[in-house]
Design goal:
Elements lengths: L1 H16 L12 H81 L8 H6 L12 H12 L2 H26 L7 E2 L3 E3 L13 E9 L4 E7 L13 E8 L25 H4 L5 H4 L11 H19 L5 E5 L7 E6 L4 E11 L6 E3 L17 E4 L1 H12 L8 H19 L6 H14 L10 H18 L20 H4 L9 H4 L1 H24 L6 H4 L8
Parallel strand pairs: 3-8
Antiparallel strand pairs: 1-3, 2-3, 4-5, 5-10, 6-7, 7-8, 8-9, 9-10
Pfam families: Mab-21_C (PF20266)
Membrane topology: Single-pass type I membrane protein
InterPro entries: ITPRIP-like (IPR026250), Mab-21_HhH/H2TH-like (IPR046906), MAB21L/cGLR (IPR024810)
Amino acid sequence: MPVGLFRVCLLVITAIVNHPLFFPKENGTVPENTEEIIRKMKEREESLRLEQLRLEQEIADQEATQKALEKAAVVVEESKEEKVRWDMWTALSMVIFLLIELWRQDFQEGNWQDIGGEEDDMAVLGKAFKGVALPDKAVLASFYEKRILGTTGDMARMREMVEGFADDLLEALRSVCNRDADMEVEDCMGVGSMYENWRVRKPFVCDLIVPFAPPEPYCFRCQTWCSGDSFPPDEQGYGTIKVCRANEDATGCICDKTKLGEDMLCLLHSQVSSTGPSSEMEDLLCFKNTQYLDADQVMKWFQIAITKAWNRISHKYEFDLSFSLLDSPGALKIKFKSGKSIAFNLTPVVQYENSDVYFISHFPRSGLAADIPSSTHWFLTFAVYERRFIQLVSKTLPANACHVSCLQILSFLHGKQCSLTGPSGLTNYHLKTVLLHLLQARPSQDWAPEKLEARLQDMLKFLEKCLHEKKLYHFFIGNGKVPAELGFPVIFQRAEPLNLFRPFVLRRDIYRKMVDTFHEMLRNMSALINEYTVHIPLAHTNGIRKEPL
């Protein structure tokens, strides 16, 4: 009870003391302080609001920048992924394309001779033959008998005369040469159309090759493009000939392989001989400062030797002998007092090992070796094997087979066309190569004489196919089906096929001229044949249908 009264009293006293009427002066400034505080609070609130707006704007700008960066990063990432995918597809497409191209080339090279059973392929060829018809069998037979058959006897007489004179000339050449220092010349051999009995155009020209060898103790070491040495593509079909001593390794002197002793000196590699170039190899017709046989030096030596030989025997003959062509060093011409003349080619060659393949210095009247890389590069000729193959196949063909007739007709037509429109890259050697392929591909009975027209069509269609593809492979090089009876070197059978049309791939002007000449020959074929054909009665042609090619 006393405690409760004490609390009541304390409360009353506190209320009286804190009443505003007792302290008027102290409480008179309260309203002014409150307004100031409110004003400051409003200013502070306004500044805080502005600061908030500024911060919000900065945050918004940062978020926009971040979003832009993220979007750019996504675009870059997507572009990288797209580029990776594109590069992957591009690479994959290139690989597929290369595989297809390699397969196509392997397939073509693997089947470049398998044309015997491709009758369907032959049927779809011949686009250039539309509207072109060969003369019928009677016209072809009359043309062949009148224009071509009569030249066989002339060729035989000319071959006999030229061979006899060439043997006499070479015998005189041996007598004027120094047997200890000059090249040793062997007997000549006849090659080419005159000796394969298919040359038809005059003037008749005999092609004779003359093998030669170096004097003892030297020998020739031959290297070909397919012997393992690196030859660039434009040198395929060529080789080099190195002049070495018989007891010297092909890669160097025997002093490199043998210990001579301290008191012995190699005369070839002595200090005296190493100070200056030796003229020994130049005397052996080598290129300057090398051991490689120089074709130009050989032809120069051969011309001089032929001139000396003729001076020795000229009194025996009643005609003159001269070099007929400057660009063909071995081209000779016999001139009779009556004004008649006989031309023939006498070309020195080097035998490849123990085969009948020869390195030939120059190709007379031919575009086969028009762009020789250098005078130390010799082209290989397989003319002897080509002649033997034709002779071998002819024994298995029917009597009076038409294979030679086909080649003679085509050679005649091509020569006539070139005389009208000018020469082209297509040569008689290309025509003969076509025949060799077909002789190997077709059975013997297909070359019966009554099938002349059909085989002539086959040759034209095969040639058109080769012109279209720009591929005509050499018959022997890379051909694993060469008859074993020929004894052909295996190294050339295992080599990559040699495309005879390869020089025309980059020379589009010559290729276009060659194709145009071929097509023009097709269009003029009937007119050219009829021009040299005797009149055939109409009764002979009744019932004979002209088959379009």
